[in-house]
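Pipeline run #58 for the internal structure catalog. This entry was flagged by the ingest filter as a single-chain record with no existing model, so it goes straight to prediction. Upstream metadata was stripped on purpose; only the residue string is passed forward. Reviewer on rotation: M.T. Logging verbosity set to normal.
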Amino acid sequence: MKKVFYLLLAVTLSVYFSTDSLAQFKKTTKKTEEKPTGETTTTPGKTGGVTTTTTTTTAPRKDSLIRPKKRFDTARDVSGKEYGAVVPQSKRNAYAYQKESLQDRKPLPYDHVREDDAAFSHFVWREIDAREKMNLPFIYSSKDDTGDQRFFSIILNAIKNDSVVAFDAIDDRFTTPLTYNQVISMSSAQSTVLDTTYAENPDDENVMDTVIRWKENLKAPKPDSIYKFRIKEQWMFDKESSRFLVRIIGIAPLAPNPLPPGVKKSSAPPTYYPLFWIYYPDLRPTLSRTFAYNPKNIGGQLSWEEVFEGRFFSSYIIKSTINNSGDKTLAQLIEDPLFRLLEGENIKEKLFNYEQDLWSY
């Protein structure tokens, strides 16, 4: 019996001390967690008969937030320029094979057509929408040794480096030439025109200060918003060679019309206006030295001159000189956009039927 009694006493004491130690540990942990951030603790001690104080400071906790880095637009370089950025040249051959030099490429000259041989002729205006699958090479946002691959950037490089003249969009007859700076100013938010305004003096409300700054271009398009191009072409029948020919006369990039300040975006489709006109025969040498993106085969790329001459693009007619005595566009004549497309197809059918009716079987 004594052995059993001593055994139960030993078990009770061990449980008691274990519970007391656990409670003391929890109490100490609770005090440590409740201690405010940055609290200073003092610990007395003796070193050689001199009392010293040890101070411990807890650093405030910093929560590190991972924020996404700023992404630059494909049309902008590090300096923030939207257009005309200089693309660095590759120091090595970027291809597995040796590419021939593009500087020696020249477009094939057109056959001469006498005015008397043009028995039939009409002008047709078309629009190319690069959002269509067939026209995606027009907005291919890549860069190589020839520069930015988007078609609008190719036009700007032609104006800057190849002495191609741009003409004002007041008409499509190439009457008013523009300089490269004028073209860039209408394409960038900050123009090259100085604007004088007046602001109230912060020290004296009765005094107005004169402020001179660069005028802001409210109609400046965003770099990736130039995805439409207008083409002016002439269809004619050459009776000497018995061929029905088409020659592109001019190309104009289109920019969306901005909404007035304070006006919300409506459900109606946006309207577009031409930035400038380029005389296509002047642009042909540049297009013959620049390749268009081929999504099926990079090794089988065509030059932009071959794309236009071979008609490897999709477009729709917006105006013609056939039965158009008022010189109006289809949008001015027909309100419904579906019927405008059908009328454009009707114009193509008229040109096709004229050629077919010339032959007798």
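catalog note: The chain has a mean pLDDT of 78.
catalog note: The first strand starts at residue 40 and ends at 47.
status: ready for reviewer M.T.
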